[in-house]
């Protein structure tokens, strides 16, 4: 149990410091608070993170995915291949366009789409593949991109949890047709709320800018049907401050993960795998516990160690997907997805952890033997 003198170690801790507060106040005092110079400056700065791609800021990571799919013309009659082991937004963005979600399984021991499962899921209706860089680890883009190229499919990267992750030197968000990032408060960097779309296609970037702003580039000169998914200048100003700190925070996450890797020795606790050539930025430090996960969670919580399961229910088993698929007679055989959902447990890895915090996490995990 937690000592009366010990505070719990939180699973996540959003950073909102004086720099962020000052940036927000500066914008509020300027009177220019929506889709102004701060947004443009944020877009330009973020471009350096994705090999110079065009960047279009929006109001959330879900909006980033949704608008990217819309800009690609994906809609009714199309299919998009998505992992079921992810946050529901990965599939919701597809469903919101009117396209059909086709679920494919993930890699054994990992969390990204399995290339062979994607290849098997392709039909004449397939328009895109939507890999998710889950927990801060890049998906197997070196195996997925050749499949997409061979079948002439768009690739929409869900990089909402993977700011500055990379594979063989290429950053996530710079592989596919476009990428989507989230700036939710618990992400590796945030803007309170917000998102970013990245693409190498200037024409696609212009369409995205129209879609986020009611279809207008010039006021009242609507060119297409659009929506209001703009980012505020307050959010962009905070995002710029956070972006400047991202490298340091990511390195601290990686150092924390190395400490956990080196010192967690509990039988039955499987530490995260990192693929060859992958730069993992540890949005989450996610272990696998193959037996008695609930008991392990209860014991960790009792010791004051924050922990969480992302994601206990695969998307294909959530009501908005399960019920329509059952009615349509569609079934999904996703054994690795089901296994991951039953085994995963995320431990604290955020950059605010002290050495003492890390030692408490290790000690609590290494005493799980009785629970496992």
Question: Can you describe what's shown?
Answer:
This protein has helices spanning about 20-30, 35-45, 60-70, 90-95, 115-120, 140-150, 200-210, 235-265, 295-300, 320-325, 335-345, 355-365; strands at about 55-60, 80-85, 100-105, 125-130, 155-160, 165, 170, 180, 195-200, 270, 280, 285-290, 345. The chain is an alpha/beta fold. It folds into two domains: about 20-240, Type I PLP-dependent aspartate aminotransferase-like (Major domain) (Aspartate Aminotransferase, domain 2, 3-Layer(aba) Sandwich), CATH 3.40.640; about 245-370, Aspartate Aminotransferase, domain 1, CATH 3.90.1150.10. The strands form three sheets. The chain has a seven-stranded mixed beta sheet with strand order 1-9-8-5-4-2-3, with helices on both faces. Strand 4 (about 125-130), helix 6 and strand 5 (about 155-160) form a beta-alpha-beta unit. Helix 1 runs antiparallel to helix 8 (about 235-265), helix 3 packs parallel to helix 4 (about 90-95) and helix 3 packs across helix 7 (about 200-210). The longest helix has about 30 residues, at about 235-265. The two termini are about 15 Å apart. About 50% of the residues are buried. The model has no long low-confidence stretch (mean pLDDT about 95).
């Amino acid at each position: 149990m937690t000592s009366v003198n010990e505070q719990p170690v939180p699973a996540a801790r959003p950073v909102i410091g004086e720099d962020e507060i000052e940036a927000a106040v500066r914008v509020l005092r300027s009177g220019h608070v929506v889709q102004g110079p701060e947004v443009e400056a944020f877009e330009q700065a973020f471009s350096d993170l994705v090999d110079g791609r065009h960047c279009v800021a929006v109001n959330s990571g879900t909006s980033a995915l949704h608008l990217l799919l819309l800009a690609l013309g994906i809609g009714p009659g199309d299919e998009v291949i998505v992992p079921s082991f992810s946050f529901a937004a990965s599939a919701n963005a597809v469903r919101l366009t009117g396209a059909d979600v086709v679920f494919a399984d993930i890699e054994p021991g990992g969390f990204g789409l399995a290339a062979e499962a994607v290849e098997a899921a392709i039909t004449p209706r397939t328009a895109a593949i939507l890999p998710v860089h889950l927990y801060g680890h890049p998906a197997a883009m070196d195996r997925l991109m050749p499949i997409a190229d061979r079948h002439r499919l768009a690739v929409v990267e869900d990089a909402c949890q993977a700011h500055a992750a990379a594979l063989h030197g290429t950053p996530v968000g710079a592989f596919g047709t476009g990428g989507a990032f989230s700036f939710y408060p618990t992400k590796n960097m945030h803007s309170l709320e917000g998102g970013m779309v990245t693409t190498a296609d200037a024409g696609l970037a212009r369409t995205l800018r129209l879609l986020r702003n009611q279809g207008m580039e010039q006021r009242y000169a609507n060119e297409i049907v659009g929506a209001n998914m703009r980012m505020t200048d307050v959010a962009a100003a905070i995002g710029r401050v956070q972006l400047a700190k991202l490298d340091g925070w990511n390195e601290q996450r990686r150092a924390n993960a190395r400490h956990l890797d080196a010192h967690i020795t509990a039988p039955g606790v499987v530490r995260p795998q990192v693929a060859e050539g992958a730069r993992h930025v540890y949005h989450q430090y996610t272990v696998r516990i193959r037996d008695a996960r609930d008991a392990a969670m209860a014991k960790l919580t009792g010791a004051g160690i924050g922990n969480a399961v992302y994601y206990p229910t695969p998307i294909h088993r959530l009501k908005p997907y399960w019920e329509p698929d059952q009615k349509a007679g569609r079934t999904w055989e996703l054994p690795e997805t089901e296994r991951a959902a039953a085994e995963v447990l995320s431990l604290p890895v955020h950059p605010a952890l002290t050495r003492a915090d890390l030692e408490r996490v290790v000690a609590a995990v290494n005493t799980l033997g009785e629970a496992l």
